[in-house]
Design brief:
The protein has helices at 7-20, 36-51. With 61 residues, it is mostly helical.
């Protein structure tokens, strides 16, 4: 039986899978806790749009 994986091993494998899919982590974004769920939802919407062939959305700001 294989030994249980440590948290660090699982995290490394998770990050490697994301990199293989072409995804990257966005770090250094600070937001109010009430904004976390809408930010994640919008990121998911952008990902789904890109998967459908929507390309890169226009930059805002």
């Amino acid at each position: 039986m294989a030994a249980a994986k440590s948290t660090a091993q699982r995290q490394r494998e998770f990050l490697e899978r994301k990199l293989r899919l072409g995804e990257t982590a966005v770090r250094g974004i600070f937001a109010h806790p009430d904004d976390h769920a809408p930010i994640k939802a919008y990121a998911g919407k952008l990902r789904r749009k890109r998967q459908k062939g929507g390309g890169t959305p226009p930059a805002s700001g």
